[in-house]
Amino acid sequence: MPIELKMPALSPTMEEGTLAKWLVKEGDAVSSGDILAEIETDKATMEFEAIDEGTIAKILVPEGTDEVKVGTVIALIAEEGEDTSPSPLVGEGQPSEARQGEGSLQPAPPEMAQEPAAVPSPVAADAAPPSPVRGKGTSAPASDPDIPAGTEMVRTTLREALRDAMAEEMRADDRVFVMGEEVAEYQGAYKVTQGLLEEFGPRRVIDTPITEYGFAGVGTGAAMGGLKPIVEFMTFNFAMQAIDHIINSAGKTNYMSGGQMRCPIVFRGPNGAASRVAAQHSQNYGPWYASVPGLIVICPYSAADAKGLLKAAIRSEDPVVFLENELLYGQSFEVPALDDWVLPIGKARTVRSGNDVTIVSYSIGVGVALAAAEKLAEEGIEAEIIDLRTLRPLDTAAVLESLRRTNRVVVVEEGWPVCSIASEIVSVCMEQGFDDLDAPVTRVTNEDVPMPYAANLEKLALVDAAKVIKAVKAVCYR
Amino acid sequence: MARAATSKPAAPKPAPAKPPPRKSATPALARPAEPTRYKASKDQLLEFYRQMLLIRRFEEKAGQLYGLGLIGGFCHLYIGQEAVAVGLQSALDGDKDSVITGYRDHGHMLAYGLDPKTIMAELTGRAAGIARGKGGSMHMFSVEHRFYGGHGIVGAQVPLGTGLAFAHKYRKDGGVCLAYFGDGAANQGQVYEAFNMASLWKLPIIYVIENNHYAMGTSVHRSSAEDQLCRRGNSFRIPGLQIDGMDVLAVRGAAEVALEWVRGGKGPILLEFKTYRYRGHSMSDPAKYRSREEVQSVRDKSDPIEAVKRELEKAEVSEEAMKATDKEIKSIVAEAADFAEQSPEPDPAELYTDILVEGR
Fold this sequence. Notes:
- The complex is a heterodimer.
- By secondary structure, chain A is of the alpha/beta class.
- Chain A contains 13 helices and 22 strands.
- Chain A has helices spanning 97-100, 158-172, 196-200, 212-224, 243-251, 253-256, 286-290, 303-315, 364-378, 396-406, 421-433, 455-461, 465-475, and strands at residues 3-6, 16-22, 29-30, 35-40, 45-49, 54-59, 65-69, 73-78, 153-157, 176-180, 205-207, 228-232, 266-270, 296-298, 320-324, 332-336, 349-352, 357-361, 383-387, 390-392, 409-413, 442-445.
- In chain A, α2 packs parallel to α8, α9 (364-378) crosses α13 (465-475) and α10 (396-406) crosses α11.
- The longest helix of chain A is centred in the middle third of the chain and has 15 residues, at 158-172.
- In chain B, β5 and β6 form a beta hairpin.
- Chain B is globular, with a radius of gyration of 23 Å.
- By secondary structure, chain B is of the alpha/beta class.
- Residues 1-12 of chain B have low confidence and may be disordered.
- The termini of chain B are far apart.
């Protein structure tokens, strides 16, 4: 049997890539460690090495092929003495069984992989044709008041949008600089800072040692000294080492100094569950930081929101915790082609209109909610989806206004249930919207467990559309 | 890899070969010149005396007000350590240098010439306090004077100060940051994270360890494997000096050397001052971990203010001049205490101000 060479996953979240170049041809003998091909992901070009010895029997995916799904058989290697003709069982480009199941590990894929074709485009509500899901009985599609009508929309990944936001603000203000692990020469662990070193040089794009507590403190001190640092954490899991400076130094000093000591700093990086990285690397810190007066906490879903809000965060005179999501970095969204796209901090956005139930969410949960809403619409339930975007200060007015119309609220949060943003929304609805409620406000969150590694358990632990649909039906008494 | 000579393919040689002469991987640590005692003019001496006496009397008064219940919470007095703040800060350029410290901060503020009234009013939690009554003893700031606090978390000021130094270098403003911490903070991991970056990036910062021998109730010898704290920068190629912190002229002499080093672009330097606090760690500390005799012996033999007095006598400053200073200080402190007692408390509306700069 020839050995099947499959499109490798080069990161925990990679789903597909480009087979940029074959470095071997059919008939070549290869041995373990030989570089067979170059594969481009959305982050980097990686070399693909042989693990087995043999002869390249057949190249099934030619070089230059885009969007090769992880697990697709791309070539066959014949072992010594084997016939080198391809096995008839393997079809060209067919994904192997083994990897196919993994596409559904996360709340994002496969629902979000289809975004925005099947899901209302989160930002370009005006520009995109109305989605069929916004059918009868719903109000007009939510328009985002922040985009002037007729603005050109550009497909942009979340990763690029964040980079563009930083680059634009760095061009505009010399006080702005970026520091963190691997942000400069490596171009960012998740490639969010790609190209910044080239444009701005090592004075303003600074690689730090692996020393979160230290560099969070140095950044905070630099902000106190009048600069505008952007401190990147490789993930917010590692910011636990630095949380003292985020809260005690950055968050409290303005108050403690009677308004003298400003700390205009942005702490940013990926937050929330990634994929198959287990408990210490999968956690949503939104509720932690959002409980601290003195901090601003932003947690965007779409690329347009991420760009507009990161620019606002960098301009803010206050310390901002800016929570991104690794699983969304490679997702593309419509971003308005405006010279200076800045969004207001503290304002939620209605990403889908509906009159039957309000689904409140943020970050990757918005994608889950959109997928659920689409299915619910097929059953005649029109959900309104509110993306909080900013977790502190929370736009409670937007939630309450929607509640007044739908009389039902479900909160979707990719995070733990206890002391969560969801808990906070429940309290707000109880205290300020009690008379509008026709059903208990319901939380749909991750399970109350440390994130397990096993694929099936991880899937069970995370929020998904099915859980949202169940909760929505319950509050609608259906 | 500095030592690999790869230009010539190495011919096989009979082993064992002598290791090739290599450029030392650890070139000797550059060190500044040994500091000498500062030669102060008569006026400078009198000014040192004045400032140290102000700190002493101010702190004694703060202790009294604490006893009366006018000052609450934690209150860490600087009595005994006056020579350090005065000797160092007298050497700074107030127009560009910055200072940051921990929670034992009253002395450092006074040495920076900040108004004793607003400091005392902060201690009593009044609206006229330097932080409008919202910071208290441990959290005082004057951005106008480049005094960046006043930080309550042990050791936090070290990376923060390193950040201030980063800002000096980034802006090329010629300023130096002076970051104080104690022998207790010297065991915090974040201190060494900051040392590493400061040295790597050659930041203009003077790290000052005020070694008063006790981290709250634990002596340096019981808490520090390397109790010669001036060596704590060695692993980061930061030179250290150990100086008598009870002698304001020795302190000022060290400040001169350190400033020359740092302003010369050589990166950080570490100064360890051996000093002593006469009072407990805070007002609620019964200080059972040391004997009365020990404290009395330091007071008798090493008091920094008595030492300046002797210098003044040597310089033939008249007793009248010293007495006039004593009187002046007494009235300044009394006035500060009156002000702090009589000023109104903050308006209740202040509860919700200054949480964010941009009100949301």
